[in-house]
Automatic annotation (TrEMBL):
This is Sugar (Pentulose or hexulose) kinase. Residues 277-438 form the Carbohydrate kinase FGGY C-terminal domain. Belongs to the FGGY kinase family. It holds the Pfam family FGGY_N. Residues 3-241 form the Carbohydrate kinase FGGY N-terminal domain. One of its GO terms (molecular function) is kinase activity.
Length: 492
């Protein structure tokens, strides 16, 4: 028996093959394209995404491991969350998908924040609204492209569009439905939230919520597209943040999970709902009635590092060398890592948030700038974890963990051990675990977890660096507080 997990990311789409012991034995990836037709707009072509999914699955099936394992028992999907993917009854696009990175609805999100409506919704659902989440995007489309909404059958999420095309199933899971329309207790849509957002008349665009997650089988179109047999079981969800947490074995209250990817996602398992505090982040159901993820997905993670590397003409292959060529504290260069044109959504909501590099001189080296950006991202992670209630160790995954120096830096800034999963594709693995549970397939997931736990690498913090970074973090927080006042004044 074998299982395929597909992670439909914003910039990369990956398919991983897992054997009957839960070990990853093959991987295929393909780039995904995000286009910007206007300033601060970010969109994706659904057919391109579907073609890339087919490419990676077909590539996986040609691998030696797949040839040995035979036909897969399950195809499990996960992918990026938020945004709006408008489709008709056949699951085909009625307009390009609006990405979670999009900022066209920033004015609506700002207005809702100013008049208190966003806080009202947060106290109800535990989800803070930002420009790229479905509610403001749908409100913008309702105002500017109402005929498009009239033509659409579903305002879907990425993985659910792929699921519908492959199986004909129109549905979503509780994690994608959580922001911002889902009641976290009943796991059903909160009609009062739709009313508050002025979207009650568009409620029929929301796909049915299925627990533990949508399942189906490959139809003729899906089978022909992927090169798999008609009738192969397919599952969808959870989306990438909770899928990665599940794949990393994070399920005990207080334990944290960090994804160092395009998004810097900081998550903590909770067993009691708490809608107090500053409205920020998400509250995501975690597969059982007494568990949720308090998720703080900051807008920019590795994208900030991509920007600075492109600026100095270097690549990710040189990150460890650059970090080693500077020192903790980056010779006084400091960074606020808010590089997204949509601002920030966690651990606070500020659409006007912008990045900053301070302390530059003619003696500043490219290595100092890279280290300052990496340190700034790590400080942002600590800020998010404090807001989410972290009390235990942290499991970490994502493209950023390929840098051993950056991994150590995260441990030092967080002041606690970080646990690195034995295989990189924890999102695809988490999707497979969720798919096995949803479809009732016979697999010893408990034994898989034991094996993976034994193979996990633990990186502990260094005492001297932790002390230095504790002081630098306090300085960072004070700078953020001053900057938030400036950002608000600039918007007035």
């Amino acid at each position: 028996m074998s299982y395929i997990g597909v992670d439909i990311g914003t910039s990369v789409i990956k398919a991983a093959l897992f054997d009957d012991a839960g070990e990853q034995c093959a991987l295929e990836s393909a780039p995904a394209r995000v286009v910007s037709p206007h300033e601060a707009w970010f969109e994706q072509d659904m057919e391109e995404v579907l073609t890339a999914v087919a490419m990676v699955v077909r590539g996986l099936l040609k691998s030696a491991a797949a040839q040995t394992a035979g036909p897969p028992t399950l195809l499990a999907l996960t992918g990026q969350g938020d945004g709006v993917w408008l489709v008709d009854g056949a699951g085909r696009a009625v307009r390009p998908a609006v990405s979670w990175m999009d900022a066209r609805a920033a004015g609506i999100a700002d207005r809702w924040q100013a008049d208190g409506m966003s806080e009202t919704v947060f106290r109800r659902t535990g989800g803070a609204m930002f420009p790229g989440c479905p509610a403001p995007v749908l409100a913008w489309l309702d105002a500017h492209e109402p005929r498009v909404l009239d033509w659409a059958l579903t305002a879907a999420y990425c993985k659910d569009v792929v699921m519908q095309r492959l199986t004909g199933v129109r549905a979503t899971d509780t994690s994608d439905a959580a922001l911002p329309f889902l009641d976290p207790v009943t796991r059903t849509y909160a009609t009062d939230v739709l009313d508050a957002c002025g979207l009650a008349h568009r409620a029929d665009l929301l796909a049915p919520v299925v627990e533990p997650g949508p399942t189906g089988v490959l139809n003729d179109e899906g089978a022909a597209l992927l090169g798999l047999a008609v009738g192969t079981p397919v599952s969808a969800g959870p989306f990438d943040l909770p899928a990665c947490a599940r794949g990393s074995g994070v399920d005990e209250p207080g334990v944290g999970h960090l994804i160092v990817g395009t998004t810097l996602a900081c998550q903590v398992v909770i067993d009691e709902l708490d809608m107090s505090g500053e409205p920020a982040g998400l509250t995501l159901p975690l597969g059982r009635p007494d568990r949720w993820l308090r998720s703080m997905p900051a807008m920019v993670g590795t994208a900030a590092l991509d920007w600075v590397l492109a600026l100095i003409g270097r690549t990710h292959d040189g990150v460890d060398e650059l970090l080693a060529a500077s020192v903790p504290g980056a010779h006084g260069v400091r960074c606020l890592p808010y590089f997204s044109p949509a601002g920030e959504r966690a651990p606070f909501l500020e659409s006007g948030a912008r990045a900053r590099l301070d302390g530059l001189t003619v003696q500043t080296t490219p290595a100092d700038v890279v280290r300052a950006v990496c340190e700034g991202i790590a400080y942002a992670a600590r800020h998010c974890f404090e807001a989410a209630g972290l009390s235990g160790d942290v499991a970490i995954c994502g493209g950023g963990v390929r840098s051993k120096h950056w991994l150590r830096l995260f441990a030092d800034v967080l002041g606690r051990p970080v646990h690195v999963a034995p295989s990189a594709e924890v999102g695809a693995y988490g999707a497979v675990l969720a798919g096995i549970a949803a479809t009732g397939l016979d697999a010893d997931a408990g034994a898989w977890a034991t094996t993976r736990a034994a193979a996990t690498t633990v990186v502990g913090p260094g005492a001297d660096s932790t002390r230095l970074y504790a002081g630098e973090y306090d300085r960072y927080r004070a700078t953020v507080d001053r900057a938030r006042t400036e950002w608000k004044e600039r918007q007035v």
